[in-house]
Amino acid sequence: MEVVKRTRMSPEDRRAQLLELGARMLAERPLEQISVEEIADQAGVSRGLLFHYFASKHDFHLAIVRHAGADMLVHTEPDPALEPIEMLRTAVAAYVDYVSDNRNTYVSLLRGSASGDEEMREEFERTRAAMADRIIAYLPRVGITPDARAALAVRGWIAFVEEATISWLRDARITREELIDLHVAALPAVTLGASAAAALLQ
Amino acid sequence: MEVVKRTRMSPEDRRAQLLELGARMLAERPLEQISVEEIADQAGVSRGLLFHYFASKHDFHLAIVRHAGADMLVHTEPDPALEPIEMLRTAVAAYVDYVSDNRNTYVSLLRGSASGDEEMREEFERTRAAMADRIIAYLPRVGITPDARAALAVRGWIAFVEEATISWLRDARITREELIDLHVAALPAVTLGASAAAALLQ
């Protein structure tokens, strides 16, 4: 085990360090195997100090998941200087690359036993809601009214992207570019829905 | 508690009866609260006999979930005598009505703690795979080649339908008809994707 010298840190820095260590460990093993003792050892602090920042092991795990969600949102932040479709493509590409780089974390969180925990699911929901809000704010720029139907389509699209990306990570039978195209084309397709698909539906 | 006379049943009928009682109880409470004792009492059999059919409580719960999945598939069976889009609409309407009628079961299974159990997730996956196979088999009838990209789009569409339907069951801000339209329009939209959405992407 790596021995780390005990250093003085501000509470904010210490908290961030503990979460960072937790998030790094999450890339290697499922959440339920992340031990508070190991993280405390790696940070060179006592188990008691860790529980000063996080009330329980479960709270620590929730905070790691929140940290991972926030990290994903930062990495996929859309660039408002781009044209709408280019902005969407860039954000989707960043998402695909981010989850490819963090596939263990991503797949084990969303499809692992964490998904059976209500508070964990609420964390995932918060991340998805933040993604949905971003997209809904962008709809008027492509001429789509962000009404109740569009909001539901956006929620569905996020589930579409999540599922298709996880399937692709498990068995990539199309290229990264093709996957990005699939996601990008699907958003206007589902939010416009009736009109874009009208030709076929006639 | 209802008293049921012990009757002789064939093993198949008895097994079906136990599953049926389990599925009915699932409409009223989460899976983890389904007690083997209560089911055995309702069926008028001993706990021991129930364990003759299902090796453990967990096995019994898995069998209930499999039974619920099969029941949903039967209720949403497409009618091949219909025109393709009408066939899709009828199947989607049957799905929306089925999950509306069984909303407690459906939402608690897919978004409850059962989703944290690996064998449960495998059951859900089997049901989704059966839905996907049905749809993939139908794609050539609407002129879509069922290649790897289309297969991924179909998996994504199933997640889309599931998520949008669950959101709608929780907070119905559009009508049943509008939800069905959203789902129906989304399938050709995502599987055709690039071409249907081409106009906007240019």
TrEMBL record, chains A, B:
Keyword presence, Nucleotide-binding: no
InterPro entries xrefs: DesT_TetR_C (IPR054129), Homeodomain-like_sf (IPR009057), HTH-type_TetR-like_transc_reg (IPR050109), HTH_TetR (IPR001647), Tet_transcr_reg_TetR-rel_C_sf (IPR036271)
Keywords: DNA-binding, Membrane, Transcription, Transcription regulation, Transmembrane, Transmembrane helix
DNA-binding region: 35-54
Superkingdom, taxonomy of origin: Bacteria
Gene3D superfamilies noted in UniProt: Tetracycline Repressor, domain 2 (1.10.357.10)
PROSITE patterns with a match to the protein in the record: HTH_TETR_2 (PS50977)
Transmembrane segments: 179-201
Domain HTH tetR-type residues, every copy: 12-72
The protein's name in its UniProt record: TetR/AcrR family transcriptional regulator
